[in-house]
Amino acid sequence: MKIEMPLPYRIEVIESKKLAGFSLKTSFQEDKTPIVWKKLMMRRNEITNRISDQLFSLQIYPENFTPDQSFLKYALAEVSDFDHIPNDFESFRLNGGKYLVFEYIGKAEKGSEIFGSIFQNFIPENNFLIDDRPHFEIFREDYNPNNDSAEEEIWIPIK
Question: Could you give phi then psi for residue 41, rounded to 5 degrees?
Answer without folding.
Answer: -65, -35
